[in-house]
Structure formats: structure tokens, C-alpha cells
Amino acid sequence: MNLQGFVESRVGQVVIILVIVLMLVLITLGGKSKGANRKVDIKAMTVSALLIAIAMVLSNVKIFTMPQGGSITLLSLLPIAVVTYLYGTKRGIMAGVALGLVNLIFGPYVIHPAQLLLDYPIAFGALGIGGAFRNGKNGLTKVYVVGVFARYLCAVASGIIFFGSYAPKGFNAVTWSVWYNITYIAVEAAITIVVINMPPVKNLFERIKNADEFGASRTNKIR
């Protein structure tokens, strides 16, 4: 059985589901709080799982599909940025890895073990790396831009290494991958940035973040 066949098999999907569950469990342990503050951690896991589900739904709302893979979707990369914005880099990366593995279950295209890792857990996990910017001005926008750029770099690397032979005449593997991947990722990113910077949307996310931080702080003081 080849790797694609294993991923699509019942055993392969059980293994992937177990890793997804592990990522969600690790999210409960990913914060600074321990023991007495377990409720806050459970909340982070619940919110992260909900946002992963929302990301999957949004990824199926395709505005445009590219001929060699990839598509412009309805803000589907935003939910992992929201996890990072609310809970930090570690939890954002773990939620992204989980999302990548969910995508692997529902739409696998695997030709090599390294390509599997690069296109699924690594690429989606990269969406969560912008946590260092979450507490500054326009924090969600910065978190999103950093994460999407990292996601883009993964797509470019995968295109160069594994799909360079698809480059049309006049392009080499590098220039084709750079151009091809930016055409859909940049368009979706631009749409998302406009949406999250609309005053009502921006204020909503800021209130959610402030309420979550206030709730965690209050719980710590009570205990």
C-alpha cells in the first residue's frame, strides 16, 4: 500500500484522528496555567476546536479554484489566526496542525512523506506562528499576515520541491511556484484583511480577546 492509500485507509484515518485528538489535548496544557486553572485550558481547547470546525466549513466555500490545486476561499485561514490572537503561538500552532490533519482526512493528495508533512501539518501549523504580535496595535491583522506569509512559504517550498515539473513553458520551478501560490493566497489574504479591519469586526475581536483575558485574570485572583 502506498502512502496515499494508507492515508485513505481506515487505519490511516484512525491514526490521523488520534493525532488530532492529541493536538487538542495539548492545547489544554499549552497555557501558563496548571492544575487549579484547568477550566481556562478546557475553554481554550473548546474554542480552538470550534474555530477548526469553522475553518473547515469556510474552506469549502470556494470563490475560485486554481487548476493545479489551491483556491480562494471565504476567510478559511482566519480561524487559526484567531486562536493565536486569543491564546498565543503554541496553541495557534497546535490548532493549525490539527486543521492540517483534518484537511488530510477529507482531501488528501500525497506523493511523498515530506510533502505530506509540508503541505498539511507544517503548512497549517505555520498559520499560528504570529503570536508575538497579538498584544500590539492591530494585533489580529499582524498575527494573520505573519501566519499567512509562513503558510505561503510552505506552499512555495512544496511547489518547488515536489511539483516543479508542472511549471509551464517560460517558468522554472521556483518562479512558477512563487507566482502560482501568491495568486490565490494573496487575494484571499487581502479580502480577509479588509474584513477584519472593518470597525465592527475589529471591535468585536478586540472585545472577545479582552473579555477572555479578563475572565482568566479574574479566575486566577479568585483562586
Protein traits:
two-stranded antiparallel sheet; Arp2/3 complex 21 kDa subunit ARPC3; 9 helices; Putative proton-coupled thiamine transporter YuaJ; transmembrane helix; 2 domains; membrane; 223 residues; Thia_Transptr_ThiT; transmembrane
How would you explain this protein's 3D organization?
The chain is mainly α and 223 residues long. It has two domains: 1-33; 40-222, Orthogonal Bundle (Arp2/3 complex 21 kDa subunit ARPC3), CATH 1.10.1760.20. It has helices spanning 3-8, 10-28, 38-59, 78-87, 89-106, 113-125, 139-162, 173-196, 199-222; strands at 62-65, 71-73. A two-stranded antiparallel sheet has the order 1-2. Helix 4 packs across helix 7 (139-162) and helix 7 packs antiparallel against helix 8 (173-196). The termini are far apart. 35% of the residues are buried. The mean pLDDT is 91.
> Total domains, how many?
2
Computed over alpha carbons, the radius of gyration is: 18 Å
Care to count the β-strands? 2
Distance between the termini: 54 Å
- Poorly predicted regions are none
- Count of helical segments? 9
Keywords: Membrane, Transmembrane, Transmembrane helix
InterPro entries: Thia_Transptr_ThiT
GO molecular function: thiamine transmembrane transporter activity
Organism: Mogibacterium timidum ATCC 33093
How are the SSEs ordered, and which strands pair?
Elements: H1 3-8, H2 10-28, H3 38-59, E1 62-65, E2 71-73, H4 78-87, H5 89-106, H6 113-125, H7 139-162, H8 173-196, H9 199-222
Antiparallel strand pairs: 1-2
Helix pairs in contact: 2-3, 2-5, 3-4, 3-5, 4-5, 4-7, 5-6, 6-7, 7-8
